[in-house]
TrEMBL record:
InterPro entries membership: GH, GH13_cat_dom, Glyco_hydro_13_lg-like_dom, Ig-like_fold, Ig_E-set, O16G_dom_2
The keyword Transmembrane helix is annotated on this UniProt entry: no
Organism: Listeria newyorkensis
Protein name listed in UniProt: Alpha-glycosidase
Family annotation (SMART domains): Aamy
Lineage: Bacteria, Bacillati, Bacillota, Bacilli, Bacillales
Length: 583
C-alpha cells in the first residue's frame, strides 16, 4: 500500500457541504493500489454503552488519473455533525486505518480513539457553495462588440473601415455597436442561445475596450445607456441573460485618474490609486518603455496604457464597487466576468461578492483565471472561472493531437476532482475566445475535428460557451485575427455547420439535467485507435458518447460501452466522427 499517495483534507474539495443536509467526502489513493475504501463515521457525541456508535459506508471509485484513484461518498449526518475516518484495503488484502492523525493499524482499540478521526464540526448552510441555478441551463455566446454588427453607422469612429473589408489589425475599427447586437437577438434565440457574454462596452480608446476611461458610460461608438438598457430588456424578453466584462485589475492610461498622476506626479490626489515605485511615470522616462520590465509603476503585463489599480485602497474599492452595483441595480445585468481576476487581491473580491449579491442574489460571478482556481471558488468570491485547463485538455487531444486519449481523460478527471461538485456544475466551458485562435483555425480547417471537439465539450458538466461566428464556420488565428467581423451574408456562412450547432445546442438543452448531474463513466479509452467512449447517467436516463478520432470507421460493441440491451449489436462510428446513444 502506497500510503504517501493517500490524501484527504476536511473543508476542501475533499470534504464539503453539498447542500444544507449533505456532505460530500472524497479520498485519493495511488492508481490501482486500493481495492476498497470504507468510511467509519457518526456524530462525535453519539456514544452508547458499547462506545462510539459509528457506522460503515463503502465509497465508490469515481475518477482515475495517470497517478491516482479518487473515491467518493455522499452522507447526510442527522445532526449535521460528523466524525470520520477511513479503512483502506489494498489489492493484497492489507488494510489500514486513516484519520486526522495519520495512519494506524486497523484494530478496534485504535478505532475507539476519538482523537484519531477527522472532524466536520457542523454543516452550516451559510458556508455551502451556492451558484445561480440558471447558469446550469445556459448556453453562452461570447460577443466582441466592435466586430459583431454595425447597427448604427452614425456612431462609428472617423477612421472606420468597411465591414469585413480586410483581416483586422490591432488598431482597426469596423463600427460594431450595441444596436447591431439588438438587431440579431432573434438570430441568437433561434440558434438556442440563452446567455450573452459581452467583452467590455465601457468608454475606452481602443477597439477592445480593456483600457477603460470611464466605467460609468457606454463607449459612444457603441451607443449610450438607453441603447444598452434596450439590449438588456430585449434580451430578457427572449430569455437571454446578459453578462458584462469588468476590468478592475487596471484602468486606461487616458482615464482622468491616471492623467492626473501624469500631470501632478507625487502631488496627485490619485497617486495612491496605483502601484507607483518611482517618479516620473511619463512614457519614455524613468525606464517607462512599452513592453520592458523597467517600468516605474505596475501594469497589466508590461503594457503601459493599462496601469494597475491598487484595490487595497479604500477609495479605489468604493469606486469599483459603486461601478459593479450600478450596472446591476440600474440595468439589471445578470453577470460579471472579471478580467485578470487572479491578479486582484482576495479581500477585494470578497467585498465585490457581497456588494453585487446584495443587489441581485442570483448574479453570476465569473473570473478570468487560466489555472487551478480553488482558492477563488469557496463560495465567498466567484461562482466559476473560465475553464481553460479543461479547454486545453480537449484542444491538445482532439485538435492538436499532442496528447493521447488516456492523457486527456486523466486531465479531465483531475480537473473535476479539484473542485466541489456544485462548482463543476457552473464552470464556464469554451474552446476558443477573443484571447485565442479560433477553433476552426486550430483544426486547420477540419470541420469534423471541430464538431467532435464541440460535441465533446457539450457532453460534459458545466455551462458551454460559443465564440461568435463559430456556428457559421468562421476562422482566425491569434489576436487580432480571432476578432474578425461577423459574417452576416448567408451565402458566405457555413449553413451545414450552423445546422449542426443548432442541433447540438438543442440536444444540450433537452438533456441538460443528465449532462449537469449525471454520473460520468469512461468505458473505452483506446490510445492506439484513438477511440473514447463514456456515458452520463442520471436516474433512468443514460447517454452514451463514442468518439472515433481514427482515420477508419470502427464498429463498437454495445457491451463494451456498458449497454446490455441488444448487446450483440455493434455501433458503426465513422472515421473522424462521433455517435450518441440514448437509452
Amino acid at each position: 500500500m502506497e500510503k504517501a499517495a493517500i490524501y484527504h483534507q476536511p473543508f476542501s474539495s475533499y470534504a464539503y457541504g453539498y447542500d444544507s443536509q449533505t456532505l460530500h467526502i472524497k479520498i485519493r489513493s495511488k492508481r490501482d493500489d486500493i481495492q476498497e475504501v470504507v468510511l467509519i463515521a457518526a456524530d462525535p457525541y453519539l456514544q452508547t454503552e458499547a462506545g462510539w456508535a459509528s457506522e460503515e459506508t463503502a465509497l465508490r471509485k469515481v475518477a482515475t488519473t495517470e497517478e491516482h484513484d479518487y473515491w467518493f461518498v455522499a452522507i447526510k449526518p442527522e445532526q449535521r455533525r460528523l466524525q470520520y475516518g477511513f479503512v483502506l484495503t489494498d489489492t493484497t488484502g492489507e488494510d489500514t486505518f486513516y484519520g486526522g492523525r495519520g495512519f494506524y493499524e486497523n484494530t478496534p482499540e485504535n478505532r475507539a480513539i476519538m482523537d484519531y478521526y477527522f472532524k466536520f464540526p457542523f454543516l452550516h448552510e451559510t458556508e455551502v457553495f451556492k451558484a445561480p441555478e440558471w447558469v446550469k441551463e445556459t448556453i453562452w455566446y461570447q460577443i466582441f462588440p466592435e466586430r459583431f454588427d454595425n447597427g448604427n453607422p452614425e456612431l462609428s469612429p472617423a477612421n472606420v473601415l468597411p465591414w469585413g473589408s480586410k483581416d483586422p489589425g490591432r488598431d482597426d475599427f469596423f463600427g460594431g455597436d450595441i444596436a447591431g447586437i439588438i438587431n440579431h437577438l432573434d438570430y441568437l434565440a433561434e440558434l438556442g442561445i440563452n446567455g450573452i457574454y459581452l467583452t467590455p462596452v465601457f468608454e475606452a480608446s481602443t477597439n477592445h475596450k480593456y483600457d477603460t476611461l470611464n466605467y460609468f458610460e457606454i463607449d459612444p461608438h457603441f451607443g449610450d445607456k438607453e441603447m444598452f438598457r434596450k439590449l438588456v430588456q430585449e434580451a430578457h424578453k427572449r430569455g437571454i441573460k446578459i453578462m458584462l466584462d469588468a476590468v478592475f485589475n487596471h484602468i486606461g492610461d487616458k482615464s482622468p485618474e491616471w492623467q492626473d498622476v501624469l500631470k501632478n506626479g507625487e502631488k496627485s490626489k490619485f497617486v495612491d490609486w496605483f502601484h507607483i515605485h518611482s517618479f516620473p511615470v511619463t512614457p519614455g522616462e524613468n525606464g517607462n518603455i512599452e513592453g520592458k520590465n523597467t517600468l516605474s509603476f505596475d501594469t497589466f503585463a508590461y503594457t503601459m496604457n493599462m496601469p494597475k489599480l491598487n484595490t487595497a485602497n479604500p477609495e479605489v474599492q468604493k469606486y469599483l464597487l459603486d461601478i459593479a452595483t450600478y450596472w446591476v441595480r440600474e440595468f439589471d445585468i445578470d453577470g460579471w466576468r472579471l478580467d485578470v481576476a487572479n491578479e486582484v487581491d482576495h479581500a477585494f473580491w470578497k467585498q465585490f461578492n457581497q456588494a453585487v449579491r446584495a443587489e441581485k442574489e442570483d448574479i453570476y460571478i465569473l473570473g478570468e483565471i487560466w489555472h487551478d482556481s480553488w482558492l477563488w471558488l469557496l463560495g465567498d468570491e466567484f461562482d466559476s472561472v473560465m475553464n481553460y485547463p479543461f479547454t486545453q485538455t480537449i484542444i491538445e487531444n482532439f485538435v492538436e493531437e499532442r496528447i493521447k486519449p488516456t492523457k486527456m481523460v486523466s486531465g479531465i478527471s483531475e480537473q473535476l476532482m479539484r473542485y466541489q461538485e456544485q462548482v463543476n456544475h457552473v464552470m464556464f466551458n469554451m474552446l476558443d475566445s477573443h484571447d485565442t485562435a479560433r477553433l476552426l483555425t486550430r483544426c486547420e480547417g477540419d470541420k469534423d475535428k471541430a464538431k467532435m471537439a464541440l460535441a465533446f465539450m457539450f457532453a460534459h458538466t458545466g455551462s458551454p460557451c460559443i465564440y461568435y461566428g463559430t456556428e457559421i464556420g468562421m476562422d482566425g488565428a491569434d489576436d487580432p485575427l480571432c476578432r474578425k467581423c461577423m459574417e452576416w451574408d448567408e451565402t458566405k456562412q457555413d449553413q451545414e455547420m450552423l445546422a449542426f450547432m443548432k442541433k447540438l445546442i438543442a440536444f444540450r438543452k433537452t438533456n441538460q439535467k443528465t449532462l449537469t448531474y449525471g454520473d460520468l463513466v469512461w468505458h473505452i479509452v483506446d490510445d492506439e485507435n484513438r477511440i473514447v467512449a463514456f456515458s452520463r447517467t442520471l436516474d433512468d436516463k443514460r447517454l452514451t458518447f463514442i468518439f472515433n478520432q481514427g482515420s477508419e470507421a470502427k464498429t463498437i460493441q454495445k457491451a463494451d460501452v456498458g449497454i446490455t440491451k441488444e448487446a450483440t449489436q455493434g455501433i458503426e462510428v465513422a472515421a473522424n466522427s462521433f455517435a450518441i446513444l440514448e437509452d
